[in-house]
From TrEMBL, chains A, B, C, D:
Record key words, sorted: Amino-acid biosynthesis, Arginine biosynthesis, Cytoplasm, NADP, Oxidoreductase
One Gene Ontology cellular component: cytoplasm
UniProt-annotated location(s): Cytoplasm
Family, similarity comment: Belongs to the NAGSA dehydrogenase family. Type 1 subfamily.
Residue positions of the active site: 149
Pfam family, one: Semialdhyde_dh
Enzyme class (EC, first level): oxidoreductase
Designated name of the protein: N-acetyl-gamma-glutamyl-phosphate reductase
Domain of life, per lineage: Bacteria
Record carries keyword Amino-acid biosynthesis: yes
Length: 344, 344, 344, 344
């Protein structure tokens, strides 16, 4: 049994970790921390867990966490970096769902997150948590910086094209739509039902924190810096990200896009390349760890349109983190992750 | 392995059966029928099932169905009664999610459903499919008429009070709110997003088909006919029923309501009596087979208010049907039904 | 031109006042206050008002407000009582959309609002702001305590029955469903889209602050204290209240319910008694000042079911306040209030 | 008083015309037709109109329509072309909200609409109904082919850039998001709440009927054919279109984008250029005839991102049609169109 600790269990990625792990046959949540909810039973805060999980929140404590095999951080940036060094020293493997270990370029990270990084040496050793790119490195990693939600959807959609160099890497446009749970569970006017329902808007057009992360990932795939415009939108739904990805074919007579994608993801348990002509819906992955992708070339023109959908809380966060844990602990990669999406 | 057939797999209760059964360790869907979708892969119609179920719709055929151990009917009323007799003759056990075998009083059924019943003799033998009431009879039944969605939520909420005779059986008011999936997947103006979103309305106030079924169930519990006003409402959400149940205590000084409910459901795997003072939310059971209940006595007056929530497609239909199958085939009652509700 | 002041313009009832008044031909908003948004243009906060209203928020100041003909308080309880006395002394008429002047019984108010009332003498003089009950008193009133949202929907639905004494006043059940805007625009986890969308729940079953207000109004109609159970529910929509009102006919052979309601509201500009058999939808009043009502007697039994819908921000708050202003200043009662509901 | 006829009043653009015209001081709806609803009162079908409009549906009849000053067609393509010729012969002015007269290239129209055009000579004479482009021609036109919903949002966003030639006309990407009302009021599974709520998807990526219309409009602005990729998305809300428009600056050092847009629309009553840095929300125009636009140049790169929002049923259909009627009949352009958007 993998002994699991969770730091920051009260947010949406925290409760989603609990949902996934509650039915995981090889993992057991031993400790879950929250300063604000100390002593509260998890199931009192999240009644969907009643009967599934009999554990309460405790104040974060390094001793208790150090007794775990793996600790997940489901926290805002800045938290994981403050505790990860000691946990790693004591042999605990750390999976950070936050942003502390995603970006290799420390000054870039510090600029976008407006925060001084306290353990740059760990960033270097950390493995970027996107199994479709880094599976082997994940297997033996001590520290994972899990891919963000937008970055997961965007990278999985662009990888086949950029790795093969089929499209102009300088002209990438990622128009992304996210459900409101991406904003987290904090009390904020902007995420009220009355502010977000029956409406659609773009946000962060001048610059969003996921931009440098996506650029880093796409540059790795293209083997050179890329030019990317990234526009996120807030969509009136709870879960889901829909990435609509535009790029320009270098050789306009090229065909074989469908085959390219199918071949790239043939052995991936959680990437589903849909039949040519498909339009994946976010609800088809609601609650599941799957990324569904389709690729189009409208009017046979030289623009490629890739549609990529995930559940931002699962493949975009907690499901992916469990997938990574499975790889790290030599479990079947889909263990505990076989739920069928809820549809309708 | 229980060999399962499903008649009418294209509606919402059909696809929900498939979602639940896809991960059931002891059951395998061998055949699923649909006249209109013959030859279509189930996963092409419901992409959430891609990778989980590799089977296509076939035209209903008695021979193929007769090779199954159990056949579910996820069909409008009138279909099950036309095929059940022969299937039962051939030793197949039948679980009807529709209305054909729920009501014992044939003329009453014919009046409300405006349909001639073609096998009244089977109605007599059929067991009403509500495990919390009929578990033993279900175990050996050949034919089940599953409880409807509203009837499940309402009966589970009233049973403790009526069985013990604590409330006036002549003055029951069930104010129920349902998500739109209760209207099914048929193309109708009334269930369009633009007609149902951002709105709330009552419907069927003069009379709804679930009224006689609920009355029959409550009369059984009270051991006498009951007086019930039942008002269903359409709520702008996909899944969920919230039943708000009013009744009048006979002995106003009585206490022990909380204990009464806890004792009644102490051994029920799918009924969760919440702590005193709770307000269950439908989302706390979204996608799960649980019914959550709380009981109130506002202002210490003589009116009891019971709040009862289910997912209409799970405990109100397909999950309950699988729970019943588990009982019939001597499987652990919660096998395949341990999913945690999706929250948020 | 009526010179209007608004205290507390940043909440939902505040912006709704602005929306209604922006097109009012006889009123002009001269001042709108908000401590937190001082100096901000109203249209920067509420872009729907761009091009309609060129005014900014100012800090509340008694001199500026005293120059108005009427001041609306769109504030939480406790604010109006602190400023109303001086404004009234200086001849300004005051319309409080909050709760400070609704309840005549001061100790009762103090118990439910957990607050000491600082001007009980004004409560006595204040007129309860429900035009269908108090039109004549409103005409000359100096101070109005506007009816709350639930109380408006519930009273309008019960009045005809109670005024005529047709139903048992001791057995009233008001099952009410409200959109989330009723919770206001404050940052709170409970009103996030991710917490309220795709879900339904009851709240405040042990006791809600609108209960004593409703009881007071119904007692006035019945001319004696009433027995009322009131259960509010949170519904996943922005606007709208649907009240489902149960009562028991004293004389079960009585007929004429439809006529009773039509006669009672024949001359009311904002109460629409729908044809017999109707089920009013909240969307049919979205953005309009209308209350639509239908009355049923299911199965010809002795239970009467009244369905009453309003837009909680219009007839339940700001529209009603403007209707009251029209009456006070001798304007046509529907001036500025003729918008057709937005449907779909 | 302008005498108005409406053909096809039962759909969403029909009822929206009625909502807008109900309060129009200079127009009166004399006749509204529907074959399927003959004899039904409009207010019985659309209860929001109760008390506002006392008229019933009649079978389309050329004599009755010919007595009007103007006839709106709120019909699917193919209907207006069958009746417009005779109406125009008889001096009636015709405003088609459908697609029959939008596209000048008849074979192109016939290919995309899969329909033979029966009056190509009228197409030539028809004026494209987008006042911001064609105001003068509209003034004297006999026949208007109103701009579609997506085409309105996209053209208003691109016009300033293309008219001045600031961006590369060969590399335009319009990523558009629409509410479900764009699909109309027909009974279809695809527009059910249970199919569209809590989900987002692209559709028509290989080709959508609005593509040739948008291309025609943008080519007119650019004075040469344009290269455009257009991807529409279905969004879980009733009303609203959000167009996110990408283009590449020819001269990357250029500035003055904000001024360009402000100057272009300085005198437009229904185009609101928001302050630099804004992110318009569709709800800020819900129910109003306004198009709100903001322009961005993320990271000071050479990609321009224009955000353009409208209410698809108002500025994208019925409001725009009334704006056009006002122009044609020499009324103030905003008469009857001053409603403030409903927010929240």
């Amino acid at each position: 049994m993998i002994k699991v600790g969770i730091v920051g269990g009260t947010g949406y990625t925290g409760v989603e970790l609990l949902r996934v792990l509650a039915n995981h046959p090889s993992a057991k949540v031993e400790v879950i921390t929250s300063r604000s909810e100390e002593g509260v039973l998890v199931a009192d805060m999240y009644p969907n867990l009643r009967g599934h999980l009999d554990i309460g929140f405790t104040v974060p404590d390094i001793e208790t966490l150090a007794a775990c095999d793996v600790v997940f951080f489901a926290t805002p940036h800045g938290v994981a970096m403050s505790m990860a060094p000691e946990l790693i020293d004591r042999g605990v493997r750390v999976i950070d769902l936050g942003a502390d270990f995603r970006i290799k370029d420390i000054p870039l990270w510090e600029k976008w997150y407006n925060h001084t990084h306290t353990c740059p040496e760990l960033v270097e050793k950390a493995v970027y948590g996107l199994p479709e790119v880094n599976r082997e490195a994940i297997r033996t990693a001590q520290l994972i910086g899990c891919a963000g939600c937008y970055p997961t959807a965007v990278q999985l959609g662009y990888l086949p094209l950029l790795e093969k160099g089929w499209v102009d890497h300088r002209r990438l446009i990622a128009d992304c739509k996210s459900g409101v749970s991406g904003a987290g569970r904090g009390a904020s006017v902007g995420a009220l039902l009355c502010e977000t329902s029956e409406s659609m808007k773009a946000y962060g057009v001048p610059g969003h924190r996921h931009l440098p992360e996506i650029r880093q990932g796409l540059a790795r795939a293209a083997n050179k810096p890329v030019g990317l415009t990234f526009v996120p939108h807030l969509t009136p739904m709870i879960r889901g990200i829909h990435a609509t990805l535009y790029s320009v074919l270098k050789d306009p007579v090229d065909s074989g896009l469908q085959e390219l994608f199918e071949a790239r993801y043939a052995n991936e348990p959680f990437v589903d390349v849909m039949p040519a002509g498909s339009h994946p819906e976010t609800r088809s992955v609601k609650g599941s760890n799957v990324c569904r992708i389709s690729v189009h070339r409208p009017q046979n023109d030289d623009t490629v349109v890739v549609l990529s959908v995930i559940d931002n809380l699962v493949k975009g966060a907690s499901g992916q983190a469990v997938q990574i844990m499975n790889i790290m602990f030599d479990r079947p990669e889909n263990e505990g992750l076989t739920q069928v999406a809820l549809m309708p």
